[in-house]
Amino acid sequence: MSSVSLRSQRLRATNLLRDRTALLVVLILVTSVVMSVISPYFLVLDNLLTMTQFGAVIGLLALGQTLVILGGGGGIDISVGATLSLCGVLMGLSVGEGVNVWVAAGLALAAGLLLGALNGFAVTVVGIPALIATLGTLYLFGSAAQVLAGGTQVGGFDQAGFSFLGTGTVLGVPAQVLFVLLPAYALTAWVMRRSLFGRRVYEVGNNGQASRLVGSSPARTRFVLYCVSGLLAGLGAVVTNSWLLVARPGAGEGFELQSITIAVLGGTYIFGGRGRVSGTLLAVLLIVILGSGLQLAGVDPSWQGGVLGIVLVLAVVLNNAFLRERGERR
Amino acid sequence: MASDIGTRGAAAPVGQGEGRSRRNLGPVRQVVVPALLCLELLVFATLSDNFLTGANMANVILNSVDLALIAGGLTLVIILGGIDVSTGPALGVVAWVVGTSTVAGTSPALTIVLAIALGALLGLINGAIVSLLNVTAIIATLGTAAVFQTALFGLWGGTDLFAPPVSRYAAADRLLGVPTVAFLVLVVYAVLWYVTRYRAFGRHVYAVGNDTEAARLSGVAVRRVSLAAYVLVGGLVGLAAVVYMARVGVVQATSGTNLTLAAIAAVVVGGTSITGGRGSVVGTLFGVLFIAVLQNGVVLTGVPPLWNGVLVGMFILLAVGIDVVSERLSARNAASR
């Protein structure tokens, strides 16, 4: 009798842990409590809202990363940061040529799409393993950004209310979160859950061979995912430029690792097929709270990297443990 | 459900017929990188008079020793089907310890032993996370890379650490006009070559990379082999840190970081398959030379150094693209025959 209730209790506990959403919510709450103990400024609404703007850009990149990883077949995009840098510089240069800033933003998006398509081509058509293909384009795009910008930053974005996107707020909510991040996640979540394409991504990610046999093309699906990842990096470049009002050729450096960390932390299985957009959003929130809290506590931002690294490995160890348990039960 | 956890899924699309295709295209694959290297030497020699001089070639070698040592060890990890993206930050941490130890007046021999031991320890951490906790190599080493990077930041503490070379042999000292450290690289690569070709451990590395499950079933201690490979690359990172410190002479918060991707690039350009099971340290040596010559030649021919990455990226895509396409063509030939 008592052993039965004990077992059900333990089951409930592991269920809670196994559900990544619940785990992340708990982590977010715990972190928030700890941070508000450390700093009285933490739980002020203003601070909470301001904080979210730091998550907008990395959130966009992590979303693209999540999609590419979900598509399976060893899919990964470590060029996201370099793509962001290059799109940002291209946008800066076209503004310098007298192009309207909003048109230039459109160009940045198009450039992102194109660079993503290049990745997709290298991976799905040529057949280069994603890690290597995007390593190559990381060098290529990152250096191209430096070359085009001549090693310095490119500016001139302060026109036609463009800075509102990166620095403005509506009812205290940063514009980049309200108008870019949340719509991007909402749209993607809808596509992944409700549309044929979204279902196909999971299907391809779970078993590329089987999906080929039932007539859908894994290569085509994955190609689109790389394009979307590039597009989101372009969007990230627009937000970054609007925030800093200059395009830095090194703006995206280091984002590749962060975006992978967030995707995996959000519960995306590194070999594809399993994971949710909402998990990635929660992981972004957790990272933002962690980062901002550490900053308020006077810890140098550089220490965040180490914390993030430990969190990443722990997240996967937990993932493995749950997967193994589930596998044994069946 | 459980079966798809351990395997690397669709990572190796070319299954049967691979033995045949390898026999067909082995020569092609082995010739691609040396041929590109010759082409590169030719182009730079034509464009710059200062390129093919003894002094400049010595420079190329001096500047690529640390990269060569890391890439040599990394080759084994990649053949095994793993990856290590923490080598750069790990080198930074060891370099700081080497610098501190040298400044404190520790004997060179002890400093070198300390460096190798510390590097091996960091490799052991990677290996333990990968092979004992079953965390995918890319994730595990991404995590440790961040941790090592932060550790270096903590050790660095806001002031750059300047230190003299551990020994004059580790710096610019020459033997018969060749930098002494070049012989170190040759010895390390000769040992690695011998081990991967003729020792059980080396063959096990290939076996695990080709088919982990088959290797396990035929009695290979998969975890131990994998652990050893990560420790090996760690030890070589430690040795590389000694040479790095002698060459650069200063440790900063970001020391070593750009070696991570360069090392992977060298291994991959050298013909080692990123999905494991195929490759050689000799190829990696060519890959290292290729990248080192490229970086040197670009500067000498007056191209702004910013272009470096563009060229490196293009050659990664080119070299691996040729490899992948030729493999697919030969697989198709083999199938149609």
Description:
The complex is a heterodimer of chains A (330) and B (337). Chain A is an all-alpha fold and 330 residues long. Chain A has one domain (50-318): ABC transporter involved in vitamin B12 uptake, BtuC, CATH 1.10.3470. Chain A is 77% helix and 2% strand. Chain A contains 14 helices and four strands. In chain A, the strands form two sheets. Chain A has a two-stranded antiparallel sheet. Chain A has a two-stranded antiparallel ribbon with strand order 2-3. In chain A, strand 2 and strand 3 form a beta hairpin. Chain B has 337 residues and is mainly alpha-helical. Chain B has one domain (52-330): Orthogonal Bundle (ABC transporter involved in vitamin B12 uptake, BtuC), CATH 1.10.3470. Chain B has helices at residues 3-6, 18-47, 54-79, 87-103, 108-132, 137-156, 180-198, 200-210, 212-217, 222-248, 259-269, 281-300, 308-336; strands at residues 161-162, 174-175, 178-179, 250-251. In chain B, the strands form two sheets. Chain B has a two-stranded antiparallel ribbon. In chain B, strands 2-3 form a two-stranded antiparallel sheet. In chain B, helix 3 (54-79) crosses helix 11 (259-269) and helix 3 runs antiparallel to helix 12 (281-300). Chain B is globular. The model of chain B is unreliable at 1-25 (pLDDT under 50). At the A-B interface, helix 6, helix 12 and helix 14 of A face helix 6, helix 11 and helix 13 of B.
